[in-house]
Specification:
Elements lengths: L1 E5 L6 H12 L2 E4 H11 L2 H11 L6 H13 L7 E4 L5 H13 L6 E6 L2 H9 L1 E3 L6 E3 L26 H23 L4 E5 L4 H16 L1
Parallel strand pairs: 1-3, 1-4, 2-3, 4-7
Antiparallel strand pairs: 5-6
Helix pairs in contact: 1-8, 2-3, 2-4, 3-4, 4-5, 6-7
């Protein structure tokens, strides 16, 4: 089963991705993570990507897709994949479709996690994490025992520099501009399933599981 997971910043996609990976045996594929690894390892694809980035240009869609397909080919006999944060544009979606067809594969379902913009800002700006042990918190939904302090005794919690109201609003606008066309593109193929992300984490998980159980058959 091959899944594309769309969701705005702060929608809880990371939490739900982990559930999908753990419960359906899928491999998590993040375009950002793979791009950073290819660059750090100095692979041929990584060097090509770096040349565009060094000159201030966007990495071409076909190069990003090539990295993703290389990752898929190297995974062996896994039961499937969940694409996280990819594709981001119609161009990437079309390149992915071509590459998938050449590999004899197809996208089984596109999960569209929908959350009201008013909730996204609250969710993102309230995120905290411990840089020492990696524990994650939220000031409202998952607060530490002592405000702004890690429960594991590591000290003060960290807030990401880009988890500010202004930055979040810009990220949300960018997401809507990029994703609305993607939803329309995949809807035309008949494989988009929208899930309400405004509700509690457990309810979102239940909805996603129902969709994926049906796709898996």
């Amino acid at each position: 089963m091959i899944v594309i997971f769309l969701g705005p910043p702060g929608a809880g996609k990371g939490t739900q991705c982990k559930f999908i990976v753990d419960n359906f045996g899928l491999k998590h594929l993040s375009s950002g993570d793979i791009l950073r690894r290819e660059r750090s390892q100095g692979t041929e694809l990584g060097k090509k990507a770096q040349s565009f980035m060094d000159s201030g240009q966007l990495v071409p869609d076909d190069l990003i897709v090539a990295m993703m397909m290389k990752e898929i080919a190297s995974c062996g006999n896994v039961s499937g994949f969940v694409f996280d944060g990819f594709p981001r544009t119609i161009g990437q979606a079309k390149e992915l479709d071509k590459a998938m067809a050449q590999a004899g594969k197809k996208i089984d379902v596109v999960l569209n996690l929908q959350v009201d913009d008013s909730l996204l800002e609250e969710r993102v700006c309230g995120r905290r994490s411990c840089l020492k042990c990696g524990a994650a918190y939220h000031v409202k939904y998952m607060p530490p025992k002592v405000a702004e302090q890690c429960d594991n005794g590591c000290g003060p919690l960290n807030q990401r520099a880009d988890d500010t109201a202004e930055t979040v609003q810009n990220r949300i606008k960018t997401y809507h501009a990029q994703t609305a066309p993607l939803v329309k593109y995949y809807s035309a193929q008949g494989n988009v399933k929208s899930v309400n992300g405004n509700v509690a984490i457990e309810e979102v998980t239940t909805s996603l599981k129902a969709v994926l159980d049906k796709v898996k058959g």
